[in-house]
Write a structure and sequence with these properties.
- The protein is mainly beta.
- The protein has 5 helices and 76 strands.
- The protein is about 5% helix and about 40% strand.
- It has a 6-stranded mixed sheet with strand order 1-13-12-5-9-8, with no helix packed on it.
- Helix 4 runs antiparallel to helix 5 (about 1075-1094).
- It is rod-shaped and about 180 Å long.
- The N and C termini lie far apart (about 175 Å).
Length: about 1100
C-alpha cells in the first residue's frame, strides 16, 4: 500500500482525553477514554462496507459493550480541501453534527481475543474519505492499568479498505499509517464528582444552568508535599470540561463536611480561573501550604458551584480532569478524567407570543402564535408542547413562516420541520390552533431534534411566554335608543338609527376573575362613547357593580372596578353573568358598523401585555338603519281643517337606502283614503299608496307606498297623498308625529325610518264660540259664531254637535240667521246630538253667526262633556273647516232667571238709537249662600257703541235694580255698559222683570256677530277690585243671556210703545206728577210687555 502522509509531513500524535492509568479495581467502571487522530488519506475510499481498521498499542484495549465500541469520523474543515500543509491542522471540536459520522453510520467491532483491534465498517452509501482532505477520527479505549512510556512498542496502526461496491477489483486495501502513541501516568485512587444538590436531590443538566454545590472527592496515591524553603508545595489542578465556569469560587467553596475542614487543606490557597471561550476549560489550582504534608490516600472532599455550558462539549473536551503536580520538579505525579454529564442544551432568548391584530387571543379560541428562539445547536425540527393550561389543541394547524411545515400533531403537541442553525435566531409561526381553556399563565416545552428524532436543544417548562387571556363570552347584546325604549311615543318597529344617541348593553361571563382595581374596556372605532350612565350589573340579581370611568376617547371607554370582583364562570355556563351598559352615538356611515371589543385588563399594563379577559372583538356590531327624511307639507302653514279629507305633499329622502316599499304611519285619529295616491311625483317615483291595517300596538292608521322600478333612490318630488284629519290636534306631541319605514320587499327587513315631528296641524276655525244661558230648564238663545277662510258653495252645510242632554230647537222661529244669508233648512238629530243647517245660497268667507233655541239640563252628563263642534261642509259633504273643541257655558244653579227680549227704537245706520234689555228673576234666591249678582255687564256687537254720558241715560223700565249708592255705572268701554249692584241688597233680589235701556250709535253696516250679551257677574274675591269682563268664559260670570240683534231698517213691533213709554217717563220726572205719572208708566209698561208676549 501507500503511506497516508507525504514524507515531508510528520503525523501528529493522537490526542487522548486522559493520560491516567485505569484502576485495577474491577468494581470501578473504566473510563471510555476518547483518543483523536488527525490524518489526510492518500487514497479515496467510499460507499457502504468500506473499512477503517485501527490497532492499539499493547496494554490498551478498545472500550466496548459486548465487543461493540464507538468511532467518530468527521472532516476537520466543513469545506473540502487538500490537507498537504507542513503542519497538521488542529482538530475541530465544534463541527456541525451533520458532519460527524455517528453510530448510525458506522459499525465499530472489537476483536474478541486481544480487544486491541477495532474494525469500523461504514454502513452509509454516502460517506467518503477523500484523498488529501483532513479528517479527524476519535476512538474510545481503556487506558492501561500500568504506566506506559512512549517507546517503540507504543504505536497505533490505522488502515483503510475500500468498499467492494466502489472497487470490484481486489485487493480493497488502500492506506496504512503507524502513529506514535502517548504515555500513561499514575492515577488517583479516587476521582469522583456528584451533580446533586444535597437535601433536595436536584440535578443540574440544563445548558447555562448553575450547578449548585457540585461535589468533588479524590485520593492521591502519593502524599501532598507542603511548601518548603527550597521548593514550592505540590499543586493540585482541576480542569472543568470545555465551556464550564466557576460560580463565585471563593464564596461557594466549602469543605465537605464543613466541620472537617481542618483535615483537608485549610491553609492552601485556591485560585479559580474561568476559560474564555466555549472550547476553553476553566481551572482550579490549589498550592499545598499546610504545616505538614498530607499523607497519601487522604480523601479530600469539597463543594463548589459551577455553571454548565450551553451544550455538551465535544467528547474529547467533556471530562473533569485532575492533576497532581510535584512542587519541586513540576512532574505529573498522577492524573485522572471523569466523564461529565450530557448537557441538555437550552434554547436561548425564547419568545412565545400570540400575534395578529385580527387574531383571537381568548382562551378556547383558534389563534396564531410566533415561537422565536436562538438554538445552541443545528437541528431539523421543533417540537412544541403546551402543558399549561390544559386544552391546547394543535390538530389541523399550519406553519405560516417560510420554509416551515407542520409534520405531526398530537392534541397539545406539534412538530414543525424547520432547519435551525446554532446562534441564528429562528422564528416559527403556527396558525389555526386552539388555545387552552380558562386562561392564565402558560407553560410550554420546546425541543429541537434531528430528522432521526435525536433531541438536540430544549427549553422545558418555559413560562416566559404570554399569559393567556380568559374568554369573555358575550351571551346577549342589545342596542336601545329613546325610540326603542319609548314605544308609546315611537310606535311600530323603531330600529336604532345611524348618528343617533343610544345605549348598548352586553351580557357576558369571564373565565378569569377580575379583581377590584382592574379595568374594563369597551371599544368600537366608529362609535362615540359617553361616560354618563355607564353601569355594570350582576345578573340575574341586578346587583350594581361599582365602577368609575377613567377614560373615554372616541370609540373607547375604560372604567375601573371598585369594591366587588367579577367572578369567573365555568366555560359554557352563564353564571355568574354581568351586564355592562354604555351610552353611545352610533356611526353615521351606512353599513359600517364595527364589531365590539370588550376586555378586562390589569392596571398599568404595557402595550404588548394581553388582556385578563377578552372577547377578541368577535362580538358583532349592531344592525343600524338609515335616518330617513320625512316631511308632510300643506301650504301655506301646514294646517288642515278638522275631520277633513285633504291632500298633502309627501317628501321622503331615502338617503343611503334604495327601498322598494314604505310604510307610512299617521298620527292617532288621522287616516288615509283607500287609494291614497293623488300624484305620483314628477318622475312617477311612487307607484301606489294603499291603506293597510292599523298598527297593532298603537292603533295608528297605516298606508303602504310602493316605489317604481328598482326602488326610490332620491328625494321624492311633489308626491301628493290624501289623508283624513282628526277632530283636533293631539294634546301630546308624541301623538302628532308621522313615521315612515323603508323596507326591503324581499326580506321585509327595515332599511331605515324617519319621523315628522310636527306634520299637519289641525286648524280649528278661529273665533268659534257658543254662548247660552246655562240656567237649567230655562229656554235660552244658543248663539253660534265662527270664522272661516273658505267659501262654501250653495248647498253647503253647517253641522253643530252639542251635548245630547241639551234640548235644541232649530227650525222655523227657533232659528235666527243673524249673519247667514238666504233660505236654509235645519235638520236636528237629538239622539245623535247634532243638527245640520243646509244653505241654499253660498256662504262667503269670514265671520258667521246664528242662534237657535236651547234648554240646558240640570247637568251635562255627556261622555264628551260640555263641548260643541262646528263643521262646515261642501255640497259634496266634504269638511272644509271645523272647530271641534268649543266649550259651552257651565251650568249655573242657585238662580232661576231668563232673558228679556231685546227691544230697540231706531234701526237707521249711522244714527242714534236706544236698546232695552234685561232679565226676569223667576224665583226667590236661596236663603243660604245665594249667588250674589255684583255686576250686570251688557256687551254690544262689534261696531255698535253705547253713547251713555251720564247716569240718567240709563233708564229703568222694570223693577228697580239695587244699585250701589254711588259709582254704580261704568261705561268706560264703548261696547260695554256695566251696572254695579249693592251686594247686600241684591242678595234678597225679589222675583220680577228687571229691564233697562240706554242709547247706542248704530254703524252703517251691521256686524256679522250681531248678538248682544247680558252677563250676570258674581262678586270679586277678597282684595280684588277689578270689574267683570262680561265674557261668557269669565269665571265671575254666573250666566250670559245672548240676544240676537237687529238689522238696519228692521223695526221691532213694540218700538212705538217703547218710545212712548220712554217719553212719558221722562216728562213725569220733569213735572213731578209722581202719582199720575207712575200709574201711567206702569200701564204703558204693562201694555208694552203684553204686546211683547203677543
Amino acid at each position: 500500500g501507500f503511506s497516508l502522509w507525504p514524507s515531508r509531513r510528520v503525523p501528529p500524535p493522537p490526542l487522548p482525553a486522559s493520560i491516567g492509568a485505569s484502576l485495577a479495581d474491577s468494581s470501578i467502571q473504566k473510563l471510555w477514554n476518547p483518543v483523536t487522530f488527525t490524518l489526510a488519506p492518500h487514497n479515496t475510499i467510499s460507499g457502504a462496507k468500506m473499512v477503517i481498521r485501527i490497532t492499539a498499542p499493547p496494554f490498551f484495549q478498545f472500550a466496548n459493550d459486548d465487543l461493540k465500541s464507538r468511532i467518530m469520523v468527521q472532516p476537520v474543515y466543513e469545506a473540502p480541501g487538500a490537507g498537504t500543509g507542513d503542519e497538521p491542522p488542529e482538530p475541530n471540536w465544534d463541527a456541525r453534527p451533520s458532519l460527524i459520522w455517528g453510530d448510525d453510520d458506522i459499525d465499530a467491532a472489537v476483536d474478541a481475543e486481544t480487544k486491541r483491534i477495532l474494525t469500523a465498517t461504514v454502513l452509509a452509501d454516502t460517506r467518503e474519505l477523500t484523498a488529501g482532505r483532513d479528517y479527524q477520527i476519535t476512538v474510545f479505549v481503556y487506558n492501561p492499568m500500568i504506566m506506559v512510556t512512549q517507546d517503540r512498542d507504543n504505536r497505533w496502526i490505522i488502515e483503510t479498505f475500500n468498499s467492494p461496491s466502489a472497487s470490484p477489483v481486489l485487493p480493497l486495501f488502500r492506506d496504512r499509517i503507524i502513529i506514535t502513541g502517548f504515555a500513561i501516568e499514575d492515577t488517583p485512587r479516587l476521582w469522583n464528582l456528584l451533580n446533586e444538590e444535597p437535601g433536595t436531590g436536584v440535578r443540574f443538566y440544563n445548558g447555562f444552568q448553575q450547578v449548585q454545590q457540585l461535589y468533588f472527592e479524590f485520593q492521591f496515591p502519593s502524599k501532598l508535599e507542603t511548601q518548603k524553603p527550597s521548593s514550592l508545595g505540590d499543586l493540585i489542578v482541576i480542569h472543568t470540561p470545555a465551556g464550564y465556569k466557576w460560580v463565585d469560587c471563593a464564596g461557594t467553596f466549602q469543605w465537605e463536611p464543613p466541620r472537617d475542614f481542618a483535615l483537608y487543606l485549610p491553609h492552601s490557597p485556591r485560585i479559580c480561573v474561568d476559560g474564555d471561550g466555549p472550547l476553553d476549560r476553566s481551572q482550579m489550582s490549589i498550592r499545598i501550604q499546610e504545616p505538614l504534608p498530607i499523607p497519601a490516600m487522604r480523601q479530600i472532599q469539597f463543594r463548589v458551584d459551577a455553571r454548565n455550558p450551553a451544550k455538551t462539549p465535544h467528547v474529547m473536551l467533556n471530562h473533569w480532569l485532575i492533576f497532581h503536580y510535584s512542587g519541586a520538579a513540576g512532574d505529573i505525579l498522577s492524573t485522572a478524567a471523569w466523564a461529565s454529564w450530557d448537557i441538555i442544551p437550552q434554547l436561548a432568548d425564547v419568545s412565545i407570543e400570540l400575534i395578529g391584530a385580527d387574531q383571537n387571543k381568548a382562551a378556547g379560541t383558534q389563534s396564531r402564535m410566533s415561537v422565536s428562539f436562538t438554538p445552541v445547536s443545528d437541528a431539523d425540527q421543533l417540537e412544541l408542547r403546551a402543558t399549561v393550561p390544559l386544552g391546547f389543541d394543535f390538530t389541523g394547524c399550519v406553519a405560516l413562516s417560510n420554509g416551515h411545515e407542520v409534520i405531526a400533531t398530537d392534541l397539545d403537541t406539534v412538530r414543525v420541520r424547520s432547519s435551525v442553525y446554532a446562534g441564528v435566531r429562528a422564528n416559527i409561526i403556527i396558525d389555526d390552533f386552539k388555545l387552552g381553556q380558562i386562561g392564565g399563565p402558560t407553560q410550554f416545552d420546546l425541543i429541537t431534534r434531528l430528522n432521526n428524532g435525536e433531541q438536540i436543544d430544549e427549553a422545558m417548562a418555559f413560562q416566559g411566554g404570554f399569559e393567556l387571556p380568559g374568554y369573555l363570552r358575550v351571551w346577549d347584546q342589545s342596542v336601545e335608543s329613546e325610540f326603542t325604549l319609548n314605544p308609546l311615543m315611537y310606535p311600530g318597529q323603531r330600529d336604532v338609527r345611524m348618528s343617533a344617541r343610544a345605549t348598548v348593553k352586553f351580557l357576558f361571563t369571564v373565565t378569569r376573575t377580575a379583581e377590584p382595581g382592574d379595568l374594563i374596556a369597551l371599544s368600537s372605532p366608529l362609535y362615540v362613547v359617553y361616560p354618563e350612565d355607564f353601569t355594570i350589573r350582576r345578573k340575574p340579581q341586578n346587583v350594581m357593580i361599582s365602577s368609575e370611568v377613567v377614560s373615554y376617547v372616541d370609540g373607547s371607554i375604560v372604567a375601573q372596578l371598585q369594591g366587588i370582583a367579577l367572578q369567573a364562570s365555568v366555560p359554557g355556563f352563564q353564571n355568574p353573568a354581568y351586564e355592562v351598559s354604555v351610552r353611545v352615538m352610533t356611526p353615521n356611515t351606512p353599513g359600517a358598523d364595527t364589531p365590539w371589543r370588550i376586555e378586562i385588563r390589569k392596571p398599568g399594563v404595557v402595550a404588548k401585555q394581553l388582556a385578563l379577559n377578552t372577547n377578541d372583538a368577535r362580538t358583532q356590531g349592531f344592525r343600524l338603519v338609515e335616518n330617513l327624511l320625512l316631511e308632510l307639507r300643506r301650504p301655506p302653514d301646514n294646517e288642515a281643517p278638522p275631520m277633513a279629507e285633504v291632500d298633502v305633499e309627501l317628501v321622503i329622502d331615502p338617503r343611503s337606502t334604495m327601498p322598494h316599499e314604505f310604510i307610512l304611519m299617521a298620527p292617532i285619529l288621522f287616516n288615509f283614503s283607500a287609494d291614497c295616491l293623488v300624484r305620483p311625483g314628477e318622475t312617477n317615483e311612487i307607484e301606489s299608496c294603499t291603506r293597510i291595517g292599523d298598527d297593532a300596538q298603537s292603533g295608528r292608521a297605516q298606508a303602504r307606498l310602493v316605489a317604481s322600478g328598482t326602488g326610490l333612490a332620491a328625494r321624492t318630488d311633489f308626491v301628493v297623498i290624501r289623508i283624513t284629519t282628526p277632530a283636533q290636534d293631539a294634546l301630546e306631541l308624541r301623538n302628532r308625529m308621522w313615521f315612515v319605514d323603508a323596507r326591503d320587499s324581499r326580506t321585509d327587513m327595515q332599511l331605515g325610518w324617519g319621523e315628522d315631528t310636527t306634520g299637519i296641524s289641525i286648524r280649528q276655525m278661529s273665533g268659534a264660540a257658543v254662548v247660552f244661558s246655562s240656567i237649567p230648564q230655562i229656554s235660552t238663545q244658543l248663539a253660534i259664531t265662527f270664522y272661516t277662510g273658505v267659501k262654501v258653495a250653495a248647498g253647503g252645510m253647517i253641522r253643530l254637535y252639542y251635548p245630547r242632554s241639551i234640548i235644541v230647537m232649530c227650525d222655523g222661529a227657533f232659528l235666527n240667521k243673524v249673519a247667514l244669508e238666504g233660505d236654509m233648512t235645519c235638520n236636528n238629530d237629538a239622539r245623535q246630538g247634532l243638527f245640520d243647517l243646509t244653505m241654499v245660497r253660498p256662504m262667503p268667507p269670514g265671520q258667521q253667526a246664528f242662534t237657535v233655541t236651547a234648554t240646558p239640563p240640570d247637568k251635562i252628563d255627556d261622555t264628551g262633556g260640555n263641548i260643541f263642534k262646528i263643521l262646515v261642509y261642501t255640497p259634496e259633504a266634504k269638511v272644509v273647516d271645523a272647530a271641534m273643541n268649543v266649550p259651552g257655558n257651565r251650568i249655573q244653579h242657585g238662580i232661576t232667571a231668563q232673558a228679556l227680549e231685546l227691544i230697540w227704537t231706531s234701526s237707521t245706520g249711522g244714527r242714534a238709537s236706544a236698546v232695552s234689555l234685561g232679565f226676569e228673576l223667576l224665583e226667590d234666591l236661596p236663603a243660604k249662600n245665594p249667588p250674589i249678582v255684583s255686576e250686570i255687564v251688557v256687551t254690544l256687537p262689534p261696531t255698535i257703541e253705547q253713547t251713555v254720558t251720564r247716569a240718567s241715560h240709563i233708564e229703568n223700565m222694570g223693577l228697580p235694580l239695587p244699585l250701589r249708592p254711588s259709582q254704580w255705572l261704568d261705561v268706560s268701554d264703548p261696547r260695554k255698559v256695566k251696572l254695579l249692584m249693592d251686594e247686600q241688597k241684591v242678595a234678597t233680589l225679589a222675583p220680577g222683570s228687571y229691564r233697562f235701556s240706554f242709547p247706542v250709535m248704530l254703524p252703517t253696516r251691521i256686524p256679522k256677530y250681531n248678538i248682544y250679551h247680558v252677563a250676570l257677574c258674581e262678586r270679586n274675591t277678597a282684595g280684588d277690585n277689578r270689574t267683570c269682563s262680561g265674557d261668557p268664559q269669565d269665571p265671575r260670570v254666573l250666566t250670559t243671556f245672548p240676544l240676537a240683534g237687529f238689522n238696519l231698517g228692521e223695526e221691532h213691533p213694540s218700538s212705538i210703545l217703547y218710545r212712548s213709554a220712554g217719553d212719558t217717563t221722562r216728562r213725569c220726572r220733569e213735572h213731578a206728577w209722581l202719582a199720575v205719572c207712575t200709574w201711567l208708566a206702569l200701564q204703558l209698561a204693562l201694555a208694552l210687555r203684553l204686546s211683547l208676549w203677543t
